[in-house]
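Recap from last week: sequence in, structure out.
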Amino acid sequence: MTLMKHLFSPIQIGTMTAKNRLLMSAMSINFGVDDAGNVTEQLTEYFVARAKGGTGMMLVGGGAVHPTGLELPHLPTLWDDACIPALEKMTDAVRPFGSKFGVQLMHGGRQSYHDKKVAPSPLPAPAVVKGIPRELTIPEIHELAQSFGDAARRCRDAGFDFVEIHGAHGYLINQFLANNSNKRADEYGGSYENRIRFLLELYRDIKDKTGSDFPVGIRINGEDYIEDGWTLEDALKLAVILENAGADYLHVSAGVYGSSELTIPSMYVAHGCFVHLAEAVKEVVSIPVIAVGRIKSPEMADRIIKEGKADAIALGRSLLADPEFANKAASGNPHRIRPCIGCCLGCIHNVLQLEPGSCVVNPDVGREYQLKGEDKAERPKRMLVIGAGPAGLAAARMAAVRGHQVILCDERGHIGGLARLAAIPPGRSEIMDIVNFLKNELDHLNVEIRLNVEMTRAFIASIAPEEIILATGSLPEMPIIKGLFQTEMELCMVTDVLEGNTLTGDKVIVLGGNQAGLVLADFLAQKGKEVVVLNRKRHFAEEMSSNDRFYLRERLKRACVRLHKQVSVKAFLPDGAVFRSKGEEFRIKGFDTVVISEKMTPIRKTAELFKETDIPVHIIGDAKSPRIIMHALIEAEEIGRAV
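Predicted structure tokens:
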């Protein structure tokens, strides 16, 4: 019997009984459809993996009900009966695993990535998507309401168990609901009753075409978090109306494009950030209410249900990170769940760049149809992995999973490499979650880890490896700038400061506006330091996701922090610098420390030890060339599969 009895108890939603209270949120993953918009094996196996993983309910994301509402180019289309055969193959593949399977019906409105956008009013989206939409006519509104009903009927005919109407996140329905996006003067605008009319009409059309026994849920915003947007007071009124209309559940989220609280928040935001909105809705209705928002711990999910704040929990990124989330939690092994670290890089950032969605910590996302299980190595080998940063840990894990005898070593006295330092600044601690997960997995696989090891030929000979994976990482590179080595200011590297090996004075110049430079500025500012960041590039922290960077930039809006980009440093002074930024010259004085945070350079000195041997050596991660953690982990898993 599972200890999390609340999360893993059945739930009744309309005529449907789900085996547990975990819902995989609809995510616009932007892969797994053909040129006609029909789902393919790629998307099917992506869902099969999560159904096998024990998820109680799942939603296909971004099901477009009308050509004008296709949010992203590679999402399922539901506006023609031709979509049914492929969808039926998908439901047939998922059904044996007992997960209730649904589709989220949506129309992107002004937040669609194409040039034929329509909306209640001709107003551009406040962020992300560019272009002014065309205002819908009343006949077109009626047509769109009917398209929701037709799409729901197709989903029912294809064997899905339920559908969810997407009325949140600034998409078309939410655009009708909110004052800031609906300026109509007819029966679909103005008063509250008029603004909710479109949602109620399309809901009735769905029920008319699918029948009273087909469950229909609705995702709504508890708050838009934008000026003149939809509010919790609005949501509470709507919740009662929707329950009276026959809705089978309410899924309460928040945010729109351009909101002050992002719909998909990064690691800077508290876990359970939108749960209070679901809790408020639950107080006014008796139908099931689903909570969402940075819920990555099964213990937290169980507690939310136990405390009566919600009836079920929606997980998005946590199920990208680990399809086996439910099984691992239910079997009492939550420590073995591969954790989402809230970086938003592989998922929402990729998708908003019109790329296929993925996951920083799980390179298998989107490749499930190609990787059906881990094949054991034909002949197990004795392998040495040098470097216990993320790449080394991940490579060692995959090699051990495949049956190799692996020894992992590091010259330092700790694991984690640069990830350990990246987790030190404020709000960044979850980066270490993936390191801790990999360490737990290596312990489970009985991989020997040796720290404080001096790499010598004698040591390597004592291991007698048949193959070697070199993952020794990188370190900051010192630039050559006039006056830098003559300055009287303390000169140090970003790694030295975060490691605690070097103290800074009260006034610090950070040379470099990359992710490391900005999080260091935040780290120093929190300690009361005055910080000037000199970024020689056009943009700040380009390697971060836009969602993650948003919160960091908000944190850096302090009086003690100044950011300059497109900087040309003319010279360093004894106590400052002369530089140009965007055509203007600056001279800053009175500083006592310069911290270098620009380029990184690979650490490969250990490779010299193997030049005279015939042992195959694979150089990966930053040791090959400095890169973001996502690319390092992908490469690590690939080499672990290949050796």
